[in-house]
Design brief:
Layout: H1 4-24, E1 30-34, E2 44-49, H2 52-61, H3 63-77, E3 89-92, H4 93-100, H5 104-108
Parallel strand pairs: 2-3
Antiparallel strand pairs: 1-2
Helix pairs in contact: 1-3
Length: 109
């Protein structure tokens, strides 16, 4: 049975985590989330860099690993269900614009 109250709590946890990560790491342009709050194990967050070059630099420098670790730590700190705590993903707005006309739904599909 669907628990709307718990779903709302999980939604707030994800939103707070994404905002905290974006404020902590200036290179992140935005955060996108897909999935279903009522099934946190099927949920994911992706942090978006503006350009392909910025994303590649972040990967090479270890910044994406730092962001991922911080992201996971924020979820743990906020008591998100353990089955939903997994690695975040990364992408660039430039690639989404080029390959999918800026449509993130099709990018992740």
């Amino acid at each position: 049975m669907r628990n709307k109250e718990q779903e709302f709590v999980w939604q707030k946890v994800i939103e707070a985590c994404m905002e905290n990560v974006k404020h902590h790491f200036d290179d992140i342009q935005q955060a996108i989330e897909f999935g279903c709050y009522i099934q946190p194990d099927n949920y994911f967050v992706s942090y978006i860099f503006a350009t392909d070059a910025q994303l590649e630099t972040a990967r090479r420098s270890g910044l994406t690993e730092q962001i991922n670790s911080y992201h996971r730590g924020q979820l743990i700190k906020r008591h998100y269900p353990i089955e939903g705590i997994k690695d975040c993903t990364f992408a660039s707005q430039e690639e989404c614009d080029r390959e999918f006309g800026g449509n993130w739904y099709y990018y992740f599909k």
